[in-house]
Amino acid sequence: MSISSRFAVGIHILVLIEMNKDGVSSSEFLAESVNTNPVVIRKIMGMLKKSGLVEVHPGKAGAKLAKDLSDITLLDVYKAVNVVQDRALFSIHQNPNPKCPVGRNIQDTIEPIFEASQIAMEKVLENVTLEDVVKDISKKENIIC
Amino acid sequence: MSISSRFAVGIHILVLIEMNKDGVSSSEFLAESVNTNPVVIRKIMGMLKKSGLVEVHPGKAGAKLAKDLSDITLLDVYKAVNVVQDRALFSIHQNPNPKCPVGRNIQDTIEPIFEASQIAMEKVLENVTLEDVVKDISKKENIIC
DNA sequence: TCACTTGTAATTATAATGATTACATGTAAC
DNA sequence: GTTACATGTAATCATTATAATTACAAGTGA
Fold first, then answer.
1. How far apart are alpha carbons B111 and B113 in whole angstroms?
2. Closest Cα partner for A106 from B136, B21, B44?
3. B127 at the A interface (CB within 8 A)?
4. Is the interface score ipTM higher than 0.90?
5. Could you tell me the residue ranges of all domains in chain B?
6. pLDDT of A36-63, one tens digit each?
7. Chain B contacts of A77, Cβ < 8 Å?
8. In principle, which of A8, A98, A112, A144 could form an S-S bond with B92, CB 3.0–4.6 Å?
9. Using one digit for the tens of pLDDT, what is the confidence trace for B92-126?
10. How far apart are CA B120 and CA B126, in angstroms?
């Protein structure tokens, strides 16, 4: 299975808020760019707000970033939108048979490996900031246009 | 979401076949240790067989490893049981708005980052062999018993 | 032949996702 | 203060993957 697109959408939203900083980024505006329903955007925005990444107020149109672009890593976004729980990227079968040497040890043996693997994946996300993403998009736009 | 427990069960199965190499590892025997249904085991076994990790024959009870323990990495098992497709650990929303600079570039920008992240995760699995897992379990058993 | 095994198809319950409708609540311009 | 419009949320629905289970065809060997 795949990690929910909430993560990719979260990045999209934050980048667009930045690049549209002189305009008003309402949930409808953002939804049009992502190509989804405004409610989906508002739900994700709620998570980003809870994690202190955006400022948004009931009744007041438009969202703003709550931090500098360079202070938000992709790992921050990933954690904010709850796509993967800590130590739970890999699921391990429950209740293996304790009467069997393999059954009673397999969980403790593979858990640290799975955890290390998940952490390696997350480290890569931690080393990329939204600023990097915005710069890359700006660069692509200049070449194309 | 989490990666299917097929992966953990696949490891469990292969380790148990090895540690029970003097006995007969039928799907029912394996299912008892994993604590699941024999059909689940046979389905996973089919994938492991297709990838050349085990030898198993219709009508003939018992499975054997098709390679040396030290020649099977956790990545081999992971690939065999099809829990994550190539470049698809993270899903990216389809059809973002091409009229928006962010919409028309977001996919190309974040895809390489997601791919690098997935590869980092898989590299960790590649560096662990079934031999390592068996040794760890054996060590734990000696301490406990 | 018979008991037992593997290989598979089909069915079911459960859970997450993403889209959508509906509506309560907050904001600000008039 | 009313009105237009925005956010916040609950509820519903279709889709999809998982894991368990039943049923049965086909292979194996005593």
1. 5
2. B136
3. no
4. yes
5. 6-144
6. 999 999 999 999 999 999 999 999 999 9
7. none
8. A8
9. 999 999 999 999 999 999 999 999 999 999 999 99
10. 10
